[in-house]
């Protein structure tokens, strides 16, 4: 199991113990690239409907440390306060997209939305990977 899968599953291990749970090989991976400019804004997608549970993570280029930026685990959508160095971060309520305004140069890197959708056919897990480039304006 790769560390990034553990990142989600380890968080979810507790609440999901009672659910019919999936096989990690059924995780779907969706990759995309995005480019934005310093001072501008960008919206990073996490599916077209709001996931039941999601965690947004960020990995700085040159590191392999995926840190949680935002999640809706527990008390509703929550942005981790310490990420002001990326810009002004908000979550789009209807889709769980991560919106970063007043982008900083440091916002460049890999964003991961690890999302669990509760569907009629059971839990579906999708990992959205978006590589963000931030250009000087
Ligand atoms: C994103 O960019 C990387 C590096 O330039 C490239 O290898 C990859 O194919 C791109 N992915 C998509 C989905 O465009
Ligand atoms: C979600 O809300 C934003 C504005 O907050 C809107 O621009 C967007 O179209 C909405 N998306 C969906 C899927 O309804």
TrEMBL record:
Keyword list, A-Z = Signal
**Extent of the signal sequence:** 1-18
**Domain spans labelled Ig-like:** 24-126
> Which branch of life, at top level?
Eukaryota
**InterPro entries named in the record:** Ig-like_dom, Ig-like_dom_sf, Ig-like_fold, Ig_sub
The name of this protein is Ig-like domain-containing protein
Organism per entry: Nothobranchius furzeri (Turquoise killifish)
């Amino acid at each position: 199991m790769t560390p990034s899968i553990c990142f989600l599953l380890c968080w979810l291990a507790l609440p999901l113990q009672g659910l019919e749970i999936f096989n990690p090989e059924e995780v779907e991976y969706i990759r995309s690239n995005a480019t934005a400019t310093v001072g501008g804004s960008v919206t990073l997608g996490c599916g077209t409907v709001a996931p039941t549970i999601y965690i947004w993570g960020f990995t700085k280029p040159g590191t392999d440390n995926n840190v949680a930026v935002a999640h809706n685990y527990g008390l509703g959508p929550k942005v981790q306060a310490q990420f002001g160095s990326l810009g002004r971060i908000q979550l789009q309520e209807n889709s769980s997209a991560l919106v970063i305004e007043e982008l900083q140069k440091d916002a460049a890197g890999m964003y991961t939305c690890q999302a669990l959708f509760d569907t009629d056919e059971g839990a579906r897990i999708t990992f959205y990977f978006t590589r963000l480039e931030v250009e000087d304006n």
